[in-house]
Write the C-alpha cells for this entry.
Amino acid sequence: MSVQTPQHRYVGERLVRVEDPRLLRGRGQYVDDIDLPGMAHAAFVRSPFPHARINGIDVEAALALDGVFGIFTGKDLNHLAGPLIAGRNDYGGATLGSDLLETKRQLLAADKARHVGDAVAVVVARDRYLAEDACELVHVDWEPLPAVVDANEALSDDSPRVDEALASNNIVHKDFETGDVQAAMDSAPHVFRKRFHHGRCHPAPLEPRGIIADWTTGADRGVTVWISHQMAHLMRTYLSELLQMPEGRLRVIVPDVGGGFGLKAHLFTEDVVIPLVSRALDRPVKWIEDRYENLAASNHAREVFCDIEAAADDDGRLLALRMKFLGDVGAYSPVPYTPWIDVGMAAKSMLGSYDIDNVGYTTDAVLTNKCPTGAYRGVGQTVGQCARESIVDDVARKLDIDPFELRLRNCIGDEPRVNPIGPHHYDGGSYAECLRKARDVLGYDELRERQLELREQGRYIGIGICNFMEHGAWGSKTYRAHGADRPFIDLVRLTVEPGGSVVVATGLTPNGQGHETTFAQLAADALGADLEQVRVVQADTERTPFSMGTRGSRSGVVGSGAILRAAEDLREKMAQIAAHQLEAAVEDIEFGGGKASVRGAPSQALTFREIAQIAYFAPEKQPEDIGEPALVSTRSYDPDPTYGNGTVVAVVEVDVKTGIVKTERIVFVEDCGVVLNPMIVDGQIAGGVAQGIGQSLLEQLAYDVDGQLLSGTLKDFLYPTAGDVPSVEIAHVVTPSPATTSGMKGVAESGIIATPAAVVNAVADALSPFSVEVDHTPITPNDVRALLRAAQASSQAATT
Amino acid sequence: MPAAAGAVGMKPAAFRYVAPADIDEAVAVLAEHGGDAKVLAGGQSLIPLMNMRMSRPTALVDVCRIASLSGVSANGGLTIGAATRQASVAASPLVADAWPVLTEALSHVGHPATRSRGTFGGSIAHADPSAEIPAVLLALGGEVVAKGPGGERVIPADDLFIAHFTTDLAEDEVLTEVRLPRREPGVVSVFSEVVRRRGDFALVGVVAVAQMDDDKRVRSSRIVLFGVGEVPFRASGVEDLIRGQQLDDSIVAEAARHAAQEIDPIPDVQGSVEYRRELAADRVGLALRQLTTQEGVPA
Amino acid sequence: MSNVAPVSDGSQDLRVIRVVVNGETHTGMAESRTLLSDFLRHELGLTGTHVGCEQGVCGSCTVLVDGELCRSCLTFAAQVEGSRIETVEGIADGDELHPIQRAFQDNHGLQCGFCTPGMLITTRALIESNPDPSEAEIREHLSGNVCRCTGYAGIVAAVQQAAREIASADGGGA
C-alpha cells in the first residue's frame, strides 16, 4: 500500500509564531509566575571563599527568625540522595570521555567549599526576603584553604587538590593522531605556533534557573516539579533515581523557559535539594536563582588554553595541524556531562572543512577552585574554530596569502566524506561555495581598498573570516562516535482527535526556538492538514512521551523525523477509512487542506473530522481490514549526525587610542540543509552571533589571583546590548542532508560557534600594522591597549 | 575563622520607609536614626546596593514627595531642585540654553528607564567617581545647598567630594538644591567619555570648561576627569599649563601627557592604571581640541 | 527534624498600597522593602512583568509609572503609592494586539519572550516621545534592555514597523 505524500504548504515558509501572542500579552507562564497554596521560598547560603574547610554551621539564630520554616545543611540532606556523578550512564546522559576520574558531588558542601558560591545550606521561609534575612544569620565556621585558580598551576604536583578523593586535578586526558604529525612538521617549510586562551563564558539566559517542588505523602505520594529546563523527561529520570521515587509518581513540567543555551540542560544540586526540603516541610517550595547565584554558581563554560601548531608549504597548503587543549573546568564535573565536553568538542571540531592529512590533539580537563563549567550553546566547537581560524590567519599573514584564498586552497570537496578525526561521516555541504558567497556579499575587494584608505587616516578596520562546521542533530550515533555508548530515544505522539484536531505531543523542551510553530508546520504538511488544526503539546512528562530534550541543535531534526514517521502511519489509516467511504482505491486518496479526497475528483472528499468520526464512533463505516482504528501513532527518530557549514565574516573597527572595538558588519552565509522556517533559522543565527560578539569582546568572568569572583553582577558581566550588535547580513545555501529524513541539519548553534573566531580574526587583522598577536578572548579595550603599548615598547627598544 | 558574610541574595534587608511632607521633617527623621537612615531619591544607585545587601539602612527617607525639591529655574545661573529627575533636567530648555554641556552629559547617564527615576541631586550625593553628573557639577564650579538640624549651608563643588562614594554631606543633612553659575561670555565647554557600552559608567571621561580670550587664549579653565580615582578629579596641572595659552597641537599634547600623570587611577577588571592614564590623555587631548572649535556666548 | 522551625504567624511591617494598574484600581499589602516588581507579580498577580537581575541592569522589569519608564526592581512599592502604572498586560486592546506587539510578532522580535514585556514598554515610551525614531535612536533608547535570544535585529525592525504603523494610523485619524 502506498499512500500519497501531501504537497508542502507550510514547510519552508516564513510563518509568524503561534506562541508569540501569549508572550506578547504578558500571559506566558515561567516558573516564577507559578504560585501554589502554602508555598514556601528557599534561599541558599553560599561560600564567600574559593576553598575553605567547613568546621561547623550554626543555624540556631536563623531558625529562630519568625517565618523561617526550616534550614538544612549537608548533614541533613546528603545522606538522603546523591552524590551526583558526572558521566554515569544511568543518568541518561553521556559518558563523553570514558577515561574520566569520577567526581562525586554532594548536594550541599559539607566538608569544604570548593568555589565562591558553593552552596552549604538552604533556608526555607515564608517569603524570599525573609529567607535571605535568615541566610545572613547562618553562622559558618570557615577555615580558608589555599586555592588553585589557574589550570596550568593545577597540573603541578604541589598544587592544592580541589577534590581530595582524586589522585590529580587533571581528571581526563585523551589524545589522538591521524597521519604522522611530527614527521610532517619536521619536513614542512613553515611551522607556526601560538597559544590561545579562550576565556570563561556564561550562557546567562535572561531568566535564571528556577524550580518548584511539591512533594505529597501518603497514599497518593508523589512529586510534581516545575522547572526551567531543556530536558523534562531526563530530569524525571534523574530525580526518580536520586529521590527513589518511581517515575509514575514523579511529574516534571517545564513551563515557558526564558532562554536555556545549554545551562538548563544539566542536573544541578539545587534541583535535588528543593524536592527534599519540600518533603521535609510538607509544603511546596520554590527557589528562583538570583543573578549573583547565576553568575557565581551556575555553570560557566569553555575556559580552554589551546597550544596550536600548524605546518604549511610555500603555497599555504596546510600539511599538519596539532593542538593541545587544556580546560580549566572549575570545581566540579557538570552532570550529566563531564568536563571533557569543552576540550573534547574543541578537539573534534578543530579540523572543520580543512583538508589536512596529519592531525593530532591532546585534551586535558583540570579542576580548579572556580565555578564549575558545563554546556553552553556551541559546546567546545567555538573554541575549536577560534583556535584553528586564528592560526590559519597567522599562516595567511606570514606567507602573504589572502585569507579567503588560503582557505579555498585548503578546503575539502562538497561530497559526503569521512571526517579524519571523528569516526562518523560529514554529510556533505557547500564548503567552498559559502566562502565565495561570503566574499561576494561582503564586497571584499572594495573593503580591502577601503581598509587601506582608512589606515591612512589613522582608522583601523579589520576583516575576519571563519569557515565553520556545526556538528548538530545529536543522537545515539553521535554519542557513540564520541565514545559514549548510550542510546538516544525521542518519541513524538501524533493524534487526530474526534473533532479533527491534530495534536503533536513531544517531550522536546523548547526555550525560545518556536517549536509550537515549526512542529505544527511539519505536522500540517505531513498530514495535509490546515495549520490552524494542529496544536503542539510539549515538555510535561505526564502529557508527552519520552524525549532526551532540546540541546545540541537536535530538536528540529529529531522532532521532524518522528513527526514524518507518525504522520505516515496516520495517513495510512485515514486513507483506508476515506477510500472505503468514498469507494476509491487507497492509492488514489490524496491529503490536503484538512481533507482526504479522491485523485482527479476533488469534490469526493472527507474532512479530517468526518474521517475521525468514523474512526472513533462509527465502526460500521470502517473497512473490515482496518485493524485498530485509533488515529494515533507514537514514533521515534534517531538521526545520523549532521554537519551544517558556512562562512562568517566580521568587520570591526578598532579605535587604537581607546582600544574600543566596534563590530560594524557580520556577513553570515549558512548551509543548514532544508530550511523549515527561514524566519526562525535567521533568528537562531542572529541570536548566536550576538552571543558570539558578547563572548569575544564584552562578557568576562574574572577571578582575582586568590579565586574571588570579580564578575558577580551585570555591571561587571557585560551582555551585548542593542548598540553592540549590527544587523546580521544572512545568506543561505541549501545542501539537503542525505543523513536525515527531512534533509535538515542542526542550525541553532552556528552563530555562536563561528562568530567569535571571525571577530578575533577581524581584530587581529585591524591591528596587523602594529605586529601584535591577539591570543585570547574576550578582547577588552584594556587588552587592546595593552597589546599596542607592548608593541610600541618593543619597537622602541628595537630602534634604540 | 569568623564567618565572613557570603553574598546573599537580591532582596533588601528590612527598613522603615518614611515619606515626609517637607524638608524639616526629613531632616528630623534622619537625625532620629543617627546615621543609620538614608535619603531615598530616585533610588537608581541605592536600591541595587540594597538588593545585594551591600547597603542596609534602617530607614529610608523618601524626598521625592517634597514638591519644593523638584524643578529647574534660571536666575542668571541655574537652580536645580535636588530631587528633579535626570530626564527632566535633560529635557529642560533652560538647561540646554545655560549649559548645553550638561544636557549633553545627561544623555550619557544610564538609560531612559533610569534617567526617568534617577534624580539630579541623588547622583551628586551618591558620588560615584565614574558618574557624569558630579563631574559636570565640579567642572562648572557649581555649589550645592544642604539642610540639616542646624539649618542650611552651601557647599562649593570643590569641597563636596571627599572620597570614594563619600561627600561632605552629614548623615542628617538633606541635599536640597544644586546651583550652577551663569555662563560667562567666551566660556566654552566639552563633555566626552569612553564607555564599554552605551549607558555604562565611564572608563574615563572628561568635562572641560574654559573661558577664552578674543585671541583664543585660555583665560581660565576647569578640567575635570572622572573614572580616574576616588573622586571626580580636577586636573589643576592641566589647568595651570593651558592658562594664557592658545590650544595648539603642542600644548594639547603636553596637556594630555600631564593629565595622564597627575591622576591616581584605581585598577579594576575594566582597566589597569596604565590604561586609564592613556584614556585620560586621550580624552583631555580630544576635549581641548574641541574647545577651540566652539563659540561661547557673546559678551 | 530538629532543623524545622515551629509554626508561627509572624508580624511584619506591612502597609496598604493603592495603585491604578492598566486603568484598574488595585490594593495590596507590602512591606517597606517590597520591590515594585514583587508587588506587581506576587501581590497583584500581574506576572507579565519579568525579573531578570534585580541589579537594575537587564530591563526586563520595566513598567510605566505615571507615564514614565521605571525599573520595577529598582523601586519600592511604597514609592509609587497612588500612582498610575502600566504593564505589559495593559498594552493590547482586548483581543486585538497593539501595533507594537504585532510588529514584534511580524519581525521575530522575540524568542524566549522573557525580555519582551520590558522591550514592549520601553518601545511604547520611545514612540510616544519620538514618533519617527532612526535606527540609531532606537538602538540607543533600547540600550538598557537586554535580549539574550534575538541579536536585536528583529526588535529594531519591529520598532521601526510599529512607529510607521502608529504614525499612519494617527495621520489617518486626524
